[in-house]
Amino acid sequence: MNVVSGLDPVVEAFRRNGRVNAALLNAVTEADFGLSDGQGGMSVGQHLEHLVGVRKYYLNRVGSKFADQITFQTEEGDQQFWTVTLDIEQLRQAFAQADAGVLSAVQDAMHGGKEFLNFFASNPVQMLTLTLVHDANHRGQITTLLRQGGRSEEQMSQLAAATWPVWRE
């Protein structure tokens, strides 16, 4: 990808974030999708759908033509909770599609595109940063739900071993 000079570290962090999300998807099963805190929080499946859905939401908010290229649908809307409809393979595809859309939109905006004026007005790169922070928050919630749902210490260590080294390369 041809990015504006100086964005390379942020773009690399965004790509690594995608690899961490992929490692998380490798660790969960569809049986995990229903795990919740029992206190009204989102389930594992809802967290995962929310992570991909928010990318599409932000692209729509900035009026990006790149939002139209994202074909997946979730049931998430104005309601607090929704029925999870994407399976793990669909989530993998949705993450790939949504991440590509976000990167393309940011690159386009940095090369003079006018689409970000109504949401990420200070700098389109903020969309990458917000996505990184947002994903980390929800991944923490997902790993807590997995632990509470009965994952062993060994399984949790395997998940950590698949995700944390990505940030130290």
Q: What do these coordinates show?
A:
The protein has 169 residues and is mainly alpha-helical. It has a single domain (8-167), classed as dinb family like domain (Four Helix Bundle (Hemerythrin (Met), subunit A)), CATH 1.20.120. Helices cover 59% and strands 0% of the residues. It has 5 helices and no strands. It is globular. Mean pLDDT is 88; it is low at 1-5.
Work out the number of β strands: 0
Strand and helix order? HHHHH
Say what the CATH topology is: Four Helix Bundle (Hemerythrin (Met), subunit A)
User: What average pLDDT do the residues reach?
Assistant: 88
Sheet with the most strands, sense and barrel status: none
Integer tally of domains: 1
Strand and helix layout:
Layout: H1 8-27, H2 44-61, H3 88-110, H4 126-148, H5 153-167
Helix pairs in contact: 1-3, 1-4, 1-5, 2-3, 2-4
Structure, briefly:
Helices cover 59% and strands 0% of the residues. The chain contains five helices and no strands.
Descriptive terms for the model:
5 helices, disordered N terminus, 169 residues, globular, Four Helix Bundle (Hemerythrin (Met), subunit A)
